[in-house]
């Protein structure tokens, strides 16, 4: 009974004899490229024209999306300086939908263009180094072939709508990043750091009472029990008619009480708390999310967006997560009536640390 091999029954001597030419015996011939199957647009000029119009419509959608972004960014937000939630909701919808349409139109338009109008023949070429002038001319010819195959020269509707969409699409991002720089509002050259002064100063000042958010009720030291956490805003914030949300976004504070013996207090901050009542900014130093989770047993503050964790016993030092800076502390005291008041504003800018804090 013979032994089984790749070619059926064979003797061991046969396997050894033909081991050297196994590649030639069992190699598969190169099948070559599959036959090209023409698309509808390759054979029907009407289909090609229809595809061209479809791609142009997608590019026009991108242009409309960019215009919607600008309407929301520069138009809706300026209506009578109204910062009501309805206006903010409308603005966010226009910004989101506009950006999505701008990117969607360009992306899908280019893909549809490539799949319906650009040549789709498969090619196989050997790779070689470009050294001689003749080779460079060949490379230049290849680039010209690509331009010709894209049909961008003989389809002006595609070319013009694509150029318009691509020129407008980056403008929303330029507007957003440009708006971060508020240096024109400050004469001091040291403030030329992406508008850091906006975050260095809040409504907190000496004698400003701490009130509950959102009721505005003032807080006495006796109201803050051990282990509790109170959301706090500066008195007078609710009475603002303009800029209320902007001021609140900077000035919101978490007020907590714990055993002062458990807190490692830095020199110079000994009188920043009132019998273990500490006030810290609610604005996460990662990307500015509101911190609202307080673990009473561990004395940790947790940001719900990216899980940055701050240790209250170490002056809200970061112990986990992407944040790299402790939460700014608000110095507080008690006035003659027993209400908690601020000693001053924050001693450093609130918010994310990508603004200069020098």
TrEMBL record:
<comment type="similarity">
    <text>Belongs to the Rieske iron-sulfur protein family.</text>
</comment>
<dbReference type="GO" id="GO:0004497">
    <property type="term" value="F:monooxygenase activity"/>
</dbReference>
<keyword id="KW-1133">Transmembrane helix</keyword>
<dbReference type="GO" id="GO:0005886">
    <property type="term" value="C:plasma membrane"/>
</dbReference>
<dbReference type="InterPro" id="IPR017941">
    <property type="entry name" value="Rieske_2Fe-2S"/>
</dbReference>
<keyword id="KW-0679">Respiratory chain</keyword>
<keyword id="KW-1015">Disulfide bond</keyword>
<dbReference type="Pfam" id="PF00355">
    <property type="entry name" value="Rieske"/>
</dbReference>
<keyword id="KW-1003">Cell membrane</keyword>
<keyword id="KW-0560">Oxidoreductase</keyword>
<dbReference type="InterPro" id="IPR014349">
    <property type="entry name" value="Rieske_Fe-S_prot"/>
</dbReference>
<feature type="domain" description="Rieske">
    <location>
        <begin position="250"/>
        <end position="341"/>
    </location>
</feature>
<keyword id="KW-0479">Metal-binding</keyword>
<dbReference type="GO" id="GO:0016705">
    <property type="term" value="F:oxidoreductase activity, acting on paired donors, with incorporation or reduction of molecular oxygen"/>
</dbReference>
<dbReference type="InterPro" id="IPR036922">
    <property type="entry name" value="Rieske_2Fe-2S_sf"/>
</dbReference>
<keyword id="KW-0408">Iron</keyword>
<dbReference type="Pfam" id="PF19297">
    <property type="entry name" value="QcrA_N"/>
</dbReference>
<dbReference type="GO" id="GO:0046872">
    <property type="term" value="F:metal ion binding"/>
</dbReference>
<dbReference type="InterPro" id="IPR045603">
    <property type="entry name" value="QcrA_N"/>
</dbReference>
<keyword id="KW-0813">Transport</keyword>
<dbReference type="GO" id="GO:0051537">
    <property type="term" value="F:2 iron, 2 sulfur cluster binding"/>
</dbReference>
<feature type="transmembrane region" description="Helical">
    <location>
        <begin position="157"/>
        <end position="177"/>
    </location>
</feature>
<comment type="function">
    <text>Iron-sulfur subunit of the cytochrome bc1 complex, an essential component of the respiratory electron transport chain required for ATP synthesis. The bc1 complex catalyzes the oxidation of menaquinol and the reduction of cytochrome c in the respiratory chain. The bc1 complex operates through a Q-cycle mechanism that couples electron transfer to generation of the proton gradient that drives ATP synthesis.</text>
</comment>
<keyword id="KW-0472">Membrane</keyword>
<feature type="transmembrane region" description="Helical">
    <location>
        <begin position="94"/>
        <end position="114"/>
    </location>
</feature>
<keyword id="KW-0411">Iron-sulfur</keyword>
<feature type="compositionally biased region" description="Basic and acidic residues">
    <location>
        <begin position="14"/>
        <end position="24"/>
    </location>
</feature>
<keyword id="KW-0001">2Fe-2S</keyword>
<feature type="transmembrane region" description="Helical">
    <location>
        <begin position="55"/>
        <end position="74"/>
    </location>
</feature>
<protein>
    <recommendedName>
        <fullName>Cytochrome bc1 complex Rieske iron-sulfur subunit</fullName>
    </recommendedName>
</protein>
<keyword id="KW-0812">Transmembrane</keyword>
<keyword id="KW-0249">Electron transport</keyword>
<feature type="region of interest" description="Disordered">
    <location>
        <begin position="1"/>
        <end position="47"/>
    </location>
</feature>
């Amino acid at each position: 009974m013979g032994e089984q091999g790749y070619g059926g029954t064979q003797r061991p001597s046969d396997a050894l004899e033909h081991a050297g030419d196994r590649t030639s015996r069992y190699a598969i011939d190169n099948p070559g490229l599959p036959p090209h199957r023409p698309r509808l647009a390759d054979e029907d000029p009407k289909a090609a024209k229809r595809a061209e119009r479809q791609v142009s419509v997608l590019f026009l959608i991108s242009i409309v999306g960019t215009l919607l972004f600008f309407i929301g960014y520069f138009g809706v937000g300026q209506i009578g300086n109204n910062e009501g939630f309805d206006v903010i909701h409308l603005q966010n919808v226009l910004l989101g939908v506009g950006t999505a349409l701008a990117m969607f139109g360009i992306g899908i338009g280019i893909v549809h263009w490539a799949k319906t109008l650009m040549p789709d023949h498969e090619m196989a070429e050997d790779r070689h180094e470009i050294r001689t002038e003749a080779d460079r001319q060949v490379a230049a010819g290849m680039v010209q072939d690509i331009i010709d195959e894209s049909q961008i020269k003989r389809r002006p509707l595609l070319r013009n709508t694509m150029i318009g969409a691509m020129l407008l699409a980056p403008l929303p991002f330029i507007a957003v990043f440009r708006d971060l720089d508020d240096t024109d509002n400050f004469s001091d050259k040291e403030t030329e750091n992406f508008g850091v002064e906006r975050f260095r100063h809040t409504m907190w000042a000496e004698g400003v009472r701490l009130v509950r958010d959102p009721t505005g009720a003032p807080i006495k030291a006796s109201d803050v029990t051990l282990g509790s956490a109170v959301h706090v805003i500066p008195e007078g914030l609710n009475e603002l008619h303009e800029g209320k949300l902007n001021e609140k976004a900077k000035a919101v504070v978490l007020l907590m009480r714990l055993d002062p013996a458990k807190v490692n207090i830095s020199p110079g901050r000994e009188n920043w708390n009132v019998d273990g009542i500490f006030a810290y900014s609610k604005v996460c130093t990662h990307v500015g999310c509101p911190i609202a989770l307080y673990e009473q047993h561990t004395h940790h503050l947790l940001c719900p967006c990216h899980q940055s964790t701050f240790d209250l016993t170490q002056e809200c030092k970061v112990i986990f997560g992407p944040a790299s800076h402790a939460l700014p502390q608000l110095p507080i005291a008690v006035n003659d009536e027993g209400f908690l008041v601020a000693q001053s504003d924050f001693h450093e800018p609130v918010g994310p640390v990508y603004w200069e804090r020098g």
